[in-house]
Write a structure and sequence with these properties.
single chain; about 325 residues; alpha+beta; Recoverin, domain 1; SH3 type barrels; Alpha-Beta Plaits; 3 domains; five-stranded antiparallel sheet; about 50% helix; about 15% strand; calcium channel activity; EF_hand_dom; transmembrane helix; calcium; EF-hand-dom_pair
Length: about 325
Amino acid sequence: MDLSGDYGEVDTDINSQKRARRLAKKLFGALQNQRQFLVMEDFLPYFNKPKEAEKAFALFDKDGNGDISKREMKDMVIFIYKERKALMIGMRDMSQAVGKLDRIFLVFAFIVLFIACCMLFDNSIVKTLIPLGSMFLALTFVFGSTAASLFKSIIFVFVTHPYDAGDRVFLDGDNLMVFKVGLLSTIFVKADGQMIYAPNEVMCTKFIHNIRRSGNQSETIELGIDFYTPKAKVMELEQKINDFLQANSRDYHPSINIHIADMTKTNMMKLYIFLEFKGNWQDGGRRWERRTRFLFALQESIIAVGIKYYLPPQPLHIHNAEPSLPF
């Protein structure tokens, strides 16, 4: 595949988002066949087997509609760059944790070797073990809690392993990014830039919601409308929303249903709209951009259909009493 062109030779070893965008543009241009989108047949000449071409095409065709747009190509190449960067950081953190664990095991091995040597060169095993046992008993009182904390942290990092560097997680209701995973603690970053240092011993007791490892995510949007709104208007609103979702099927599941969740006396009907996104919310900026776009489309549909909500009328009593005269 020829990736040379107006921008010169493009290095496929991408190490920045700028290079990722350039590579995506060149890939799309090299595969393009006088169309504004790519189809699976465009991939076939570059693979030995059709199944390999299908797998490569499916990697970029996230919405499964049978074609790849420029935006899909760009988003996927940038996504691969970010995933590779996160993988490298995760491997670095694991390597550092394994190095620390290796030093701890070396200390234990030295202690065991020392005891074995003492027992080998001293005929009186009891005389050797009694002072060593006393020493270990004293150390237990000093370092017992530290050893327990270390054991829990090892299990958490290497066995449970609930996240890697770069993962977006929800922890106690907070939206956090994993910055670094250590043997004894984890560093998180909040949306405002604050760094949070959390002991892994404490993290063992938490419910951790890993967004990167999640599939398609969804949310429920609540909408209040006037109690006397006709059913036909609600159905028309549902149809307009579905038209928008089908036109933007790369980002949303192409169908929704509007449900009446509750009725507040004879004043308001509460509607629930279950919206499913394509992909998860690892990319926070993309998540809010898609949500905002949907809400604007919902607003336009509500205005076009003529659905409104009015506050309930309040009784107003006017007393026309004669004012008392000052004379």
